[in-house]
Design goal:
The complex is a heterodimer of chains A (330) and B (243). By secondary structure, chain A is mainly alpha-helical. Chain A has a single domain, classed as Orthogonal Bundle (ABC transporter involved in vitamin B12 uptake, BtuC), CATH 1.10.3470. Helix content of chain A is 74%, strand content 1%. Chain A contains 14 helices and 2 strands. Chain A has a two-stranded antiparallel ribbon with strand order 1-2. In chain A, helix 8 packs across helix 9. The radius of gyration of chain A is 20 Å and the shape is globular. The mean pLDDT of chain A is 88. With 243 residues, chain B is an alpha/beta fold. Chain B has a domain of 164 residues: P-loop containing nucleotide triphosphate hydrolases (Rossmann fold, 3-Layer(aba) Sandwich), CATH 3.40.50.300. In chain B, the strands form 2 sheets. Chain B has a 6-stranded mixed β-sheet, with helices on both faces. In chain B, strands 1, 2, 3, 5 and 6 form a 5-stranded antiparallel β-sheet that branches. In chain B, strand 5 and strand 6 form a beta hairpin. Chain B is globular and about 45 Å long. The two termini of chain B are 32 Å apart. Classes of the chains: A mainly alpha (330), B alpha/beta (243). The interface between A and B is medium-sized, with 19 and 28 residues.
């Protein structure tokens, strides 16, 4: 163990790019997880529901993106100059946003038609309903896209993330790294700041927080909890879809059953961060993302175990999570 | 004075159990009325029934001629009833001013509160003690300030009727006197008040009429000065104390 640690230390001094690359990989994974977990945590914070079908919103966003990106980028020729590359990038961005936006009405309808009926029921009913929904959504996606894995169509012989590889990382920093992943990390940071701004500064965000804090009192000041619940569920769906769309633009293939792992890791993230806490989801996601990618690099056998070990430690030391609000958005 | 809140034959359910039995109660325009009873007598349940927050087994609640039991509960504050719950139930993590503004953000337009800032300032004018704490998060307020904040929030939609559930409970005597003064000022502004109290001695200084509730039923009503001298009422309230 001591020898392995010494080797690692030596390696970090002689070749720091390994640390940087795997930390960036961890940040990329962390921000994807944050986007999924943020929706899961606000839905729990406001509605009091652990939505087991949340991972399927992520999968649906990923598959929608594959179809949309393939269609839109197929309308243009392979980029050869900065202008055509910019157009290509805009089309990819449009595909990401449209794929995520489709999740808004989808999740709003699911909340209104199904989830709303069981708010006052025992948690077991909530888990059964959302688990059933998970299975139905997986099968619907398999019927629509097929059971295998899917990637956006190659453009000029290159994958989508290779086409948008525009940051000269090798030249600037001495190691190569995907520009798409850098953009994704930036997008994740923007989502985090936007969520903080929404809940801290906007009227609607503070009304949602008030509903999370005290649903009944919110009603007594005129808040329609039905509308707030639909809004929150749709927001959660949007961010999960956004995560799926962004993720499937990278080297990750989309599939109908990709939501399971994402859901489990998102649970780890929100338990580590504190159920209902946006800041907690952010810190938890970054910790889980970076830790798992470091493990993939140094101890691949521990990649899956490491996030759960972290969760166990947090539960033992601080059972309410790092930012423990347990049911209030913060 | 015309009657504008009429509670008729109300029986409130809590978790499927009936906790009040055929409550009849009225408040006239501009009037201050108390509902006095021991802890567990049914005061809070009666108020929650009026606000649509508790299920009714039977009965009606009419306000300015409109049947409230047919409305969604979030529309009741828009109709002009402000509510301060027993436990304050402030929105923690938010400032005093945010707690005042929230009702206006949700329903101000529907209620006709067009000047948000003027409304908020009018509440701070009343509760001067909160003015220098407007940016304080509400969980850091003292007990009395918290009650003031909860009453102020209930006033943010310019209510015609204010329902106050035990606003004086658990406060130091000097704070109780201050709050009584504030409530009298609210009444002087022309707002009708329905107030729950477990300590009957506070009531005559504030209200015009009082009801006595015991085990979920109204057992007496009338002039508070007369009722609190009634040996039967005194016996009923004994053991209630602050309860």
């Amino acid at each position: 163990m001591a020898v392995a640690a010494a080797d690692l230390l030596l390696q970090s001094v002689t070749d720091p790019s390994g640390w940087v690359i795997h930390t960036l990989n961890g940040l990329f994974r962390g921000f994807i997880l944050f986007m999924i977990a943020s929706g899961l945590t606000i839905i729990f914070g406001v509605l009091g529901i652990l939505n087991l079908a949340h991972g399927e919103f992520y999968a649906l966003g990923a598959l929608l993106f594959v179809s949309l990106a393939s269609y839109l980028t197929g309308l243009v020729v392979a980029p050869t100059d900065p202008a055509s590359l910019l157009l290509f990038g805009v089309l990819v961005l449009v595909a990401i946003l449209v794929a995520a936006a489709v999740l808004i009405p989808v999740s709003a309808v699911i909340e209104t038609v199904l989830v709303r009926k069981i708010y006052d029921r025992d948690e077991v009913y909530q888990l059964l309903l959302t688990f059933g929904l998970l299975l139905v959504l997986i099968d619907l996606m398999k019927i629509s896209w097929g059971p295998g894995t899917h990637r956006p169509d190659a453009v000029g012989g290159e994958s989508l993330n290779q086409v948008v590889d525009v940051i000269p990382m090798e030249e600037w920093f001495g190691f190569s790294y995907s520009s798409y992943a850098i953009f994704s990390i930036f997008a994740g940071a923007v989502v985090f700041l936007a969520l903080l701004w929404f809940f801290d500064r906007t009227k609607t965000g503070r009304i949602v927080r008030a509903t999370a804090i005290n649903r009944e009192m919110a009603t007594a000041i005129g808040v329609s909890s039905d509308r707030v619940f639909t809004l929150v569920f749709a927001m959660g769906g949007f961010f999960a879809g956004l995560a799926g769309a962004i993720h499937s633009g990278s080297a990750i293939a989309a599939s109908a059953d990709m939501g399971g792992d994402a859901l489990v890791l998102s649970f780890v993230v929100i338990v580590v961060g504190g159920l209902g806490s946006i800041r907690g989801a952010f810190v938890g996601a970054i910790l889980v993302g970076v830790l798992s990618r470091w493990m993939t690099w140094q101890q691949p056998a521990l990649e899956l175990a490491a996030p759960f070990a972290l969760m166990v430690v947090v539960l033992l030391v601080r059972p309410e999570g790092l930012y423990g609000t347990w049911g209030e958005i913060e | 004075m015309s009657e504008f809140l009429e509670v008729r034959n109300n029986s409130v359910l809590v978790e499927g159990f009936q906790v009040t039995d055929g409550i009849d109660l009225t408040v006239r325009e501009g009037e201050a009325v108390a509902l006095v009873g021991r802890n567990g007598a049914g005061k809070t349940s009666t108020f929650r029934g009026i606000m649509g927050l508790a299920e009714l087994a039977e009965g009606s609640v009419r306000f300015e001629g409109e049947e409230l039991t047919e409305l969604r509960p979030e529309l009741i504050p828009v109709r002009g009833i402000g509510y301060q719950p027993e436990g304050r139930d402030l929105f923690t993590g938010m400032t005093v001013e945010e707690n005042f503004r929230l009702p206006i953000w949700t329903s101000g337009k529907a209620r006709g509160v067009t000047d948000e800032d003027a409304m908020v300032e009018s509440i701070f004018d009343l509760f001067e003690e909160l003015d220098h704490r407007r940016d304080t998060e509400v969980q850091n307020l003292s007990g009395g300030q918290g009650k003031m904040c909860a009453i102020g929030r209930a006033m943010a939609l310019d209510p015609d009727l204010l329902i106050l559930d035990e606003p004086l409970e658990g406060l130091a005597p000097i704070v109780v006197e201050n709050l009584k003064e504030y409530i009298r000022e609210i009444i002087d502004r022309g707002i009708s008040v329905l107030i729950a109290e477990s300590n009957a001695s506070h009531v005559p200084e504030i209200v015009d009429r009082m009801y006595v509730i015991e085990r979920g039923s109204i057992v007496d009503s009338g002039d508070p000065e007369v009722l609190i001298e009634d040996p039967e009422i005194q016996e009923l309230m004994q053991g209630g104390g602050a309860g």
